[in-house]
Specification:
Blueprint (H helix, E strand, L loop, with lengths): L1 H6 L8 H12 L3 H34 L4 H52 L3 H5 L3 H43 L1 H48 L1 H6 L3 H53 L5 H43 L20 E8 L8 E8 L4 E5 L6 H8 L7 E6 L2 E2 L5 H6 L1 E4 L10 H6 L7 H10 L3 H5 L18 H15 L3 E5 L7 H15 L3 E5 L11 E6 L2 E6 L1 H7 L2 H7 L12 E2 L7 E2 L8
Parallel strand pairs: 3-8, 3-9, 6-7, 7-8
Antiparallel strand pairs: 1-2, 1-4, 4-5, 9-10, 11-12
Helix pairs in contact: 2-4, 2-10, 3-4, 3-6, 3-10, 4-6, 6-7, 6-10, 7-9, 7-10, 9-10, 14-16, 16-17
Amino acid sequence: MVSAMRSSIPEKRAPIGSVVREYWRGVRNYPALFLFVILGGAGMQVADLVAPLYLKQFFNTVATHTPDQASSGILLSLIAIIAAWWFASWACSRILHISNVYLESHVMSDLSQRAFSYLIDHSYNFFVSRFSGSLTHKINKFGRSFESLFDSVVTRFFPTVLFVGGAIAVLYSRNHTLGIILGAWATLFVAFQLFVARIRQPIRIARAEADTRVTGTLADAISNHATIALFTGEAHERGILKAVVEKWRRATNRAWSTDVLVWAALGLFIIGVDVGLLYGATIFWQQGLLTVGDFVLIQIYLFGIFDRLTAVNQDLRRVYDALADAGEMVELLNMPHDVQDARNAHPLSVSHGAIAFSNITFYFDKERPILKNFTLDIPSREKVALVGPSGAGKTTITKLLLRLYDVKEGEIAIDGRDISKVTQGSLRSAIAFVPQEPVLFHRSLMENIRYGRLGASDEEVFEAARKAHCHEFITALPEGYATLVGERGVKLSGGERQRVAIARAILKNAPILVLDEATSSLDSESEALIQDALEVLMQGKTVIVIAHRLSTIMKMDRIIVLEGGAIVADGTHGKLIEQGGLYQKLWNIQAGGFLKDDDEETDAKEGEESEEEGDEEEK
């Protein structure tokens, strides 16, 4: 269902202006390096324009002088001057490229960090609505696109404009007609490339989108390998990938075929102007208006112009590809965060841990509210259990408390402070959350447990692991706490992952504790040990427990029975049994303390509620 939801979100791209602004924001942090890049590029073009002028003199001297000592001295002087300008071009080239290496590496690093920092602050709903593989691909393309764009515009377009403009000016000074012809040709040549590039842009965008879809499909399949294997879906997945790759192939074929046609047209442009200028120069030479050196000058300039202007075609393709790729990420950077800190939000300081839900209304679809006018007060250090059938709203309540979503109406307060007015970081630091299906980083066990409190010492991590009864299985592993757990913790069993998550919560030691069926993946022996650890962990804390095993919540101070997003009963286990009703019904259909029906509200499906909780436990 999540995959279907994710794929339904259309891919958008930011306007070109937004992409350029984002990149310029990165470049302007390094003004000195940028200046050296500009000066290096400009210096190269000046040297490449001036050196042929002395070559012209060199060949005129050879053509008009006899090989005597005087002419040899002139030629040697010209060679020295030409060599000096060539060396100047080489030196400017080194300045350009060395500065460019440092500039691009710094800016690409900054862009990747900025993209990640902004992306990671998006809401919970943002991430469950998108492929993680596609988001990763977009961040990577964002930095690489800057390299392509900056190389093309600053190190090639800008120098090309200087060289072509300078060559036209020099040729115009020698012969107005030839200068005008070259200028008109260069203008038409560039205009043609720009015109074609604009026509090709939708084709390039289609190819970039197809490329992103291939990455997303691969990531989705690889991350769900176990499901594919268990349901023998290999052939089905191959078919899905084949269809996506085929769309990419067709888009790529269209883009590359267009390039072939453009190159054919550019070749005709080049042949035409070369033949035309040589013919015109011959006529002016016959009239005594041009020298042999002028022929050399014209050819050197033409070869330089051809080389640079044909490179413009390749660079225009790279520019539009880069803009198409970067536009995906910039669109996400321009997207406001769904859940934001209020202006002038202050850190939350929890002294008691009293929680109050006041007239809460929440929905993904207005026609199907999950909670409506929901009110619940949890006094300081009270231990409350939430129970009820599937779709009752239990997990949604905890997600609202953590501000993974914002309420539509009403207020949630901790110690009298509206949580929407405090910083999200301080709010979540005050709450330790153990989910039903904990997901771990592909890092060591030490790092995963220490995530509860990043500044904790090794001994504090060991102590938390002992209390959660995971120290035993960790020390039995060949690499102990240095063991890598695999992507999402797949190398551990469900019970082992659960105990690591509990150890992380113990280490965090927050004043508010939320347990979403924290013992669901444990065997009976482990559960007995964890129950003891949880009793220690819950001391002195405000606790909210979501449970399917009603036997695990009998000692709670209060049990809140939910149905249809509303409270239908509230009291201790004994009191609720005496009252009868839904709680007694749930209790009666258990065997060994399990509910027959599970409950987990999960996340938005493009503005539509989708709730599912746990694995079905049968009688």
